[in-house]
Amino acid sequence: MSGQQLFQMVFCSFIILTTLSLRADSEAAGKSSPIPLRLEPSAIPYSEMNTDLPLWPQEDILSGVSEHRYKTLYSGDIDVSIYEAKPMKLRLRDFPIDEFVTVISGKLILTADGGSPQHFDVGESVLVPKGFTGTWEMQGNFREMVVIINKAFRE
What is the bridge-based pairing of β-strands 99-112 and 125-128? Predict the structure, then answer.
């Protein structure tokens, strides 16, 4: 098992456990009727984001450093999180989930193996499909809003 595969398994397990914990807390609170939730991903200070994400494996870092944080904004049938990272370029192999991303700050450059670079600026969105293999480059003060379906973790 490669370092990347191990990281992805640990990262996905971490997200699952966080999701289950948040769901249990929500159910225990006995919320009566759901209300719309305003998402303001740029309003959350970096200092208030969680730091317990595992580092990316060194062999997958093509440039930059593995320093990142996250904050889960919502957990239900879908998870909505904010992820922020220092500038870094990663090599990804067989990405384990479908992930919808909206760039909040900085720039994202995705390059599938054999493909041309795709650039995503602030306000732009991309669906990174399960199985993606290529490079994932985060430039500037990079922050993204991530949406994943929890069902993907239960199968």
Answer: antiparallel
In a domain, 40, yes or no: no
Asked if residue 36 belongs to a domain, the reply is no
More confident call, 109 vs 12 = 109
Domain ranges, residue 67: 3-30+46-154
| Model confidence pLDDT, tens digit, residues 54-108 | 999 999 999 999 999 999 999 988 999 999 999 999 999 999 999 999 999 999 9
The tokens of 3 are what? Answer: 């370092």
Q: Residue 37 domain-assigned?
A: no
For the record, the structure tokens of 112 come out as 């599938």
As a whole number, the mean pLDDT across the chain is 83
Q: Let me know: does 42 contact 71? Beta carbons within 8 Å.
A: no
* 79 HSE (CA, 13 A, CB side): 27
Q: Cα 102 to chain center, whole Å?
A: 10
Q: What is the pTM of this model?
A: 0.75
User: In terms of DSSP H, where are the helices of the chain?
Assistant: 3-29, 151-154
What CATH number did the domain enclosing 113 receive?
Answer: 2.60.120.10
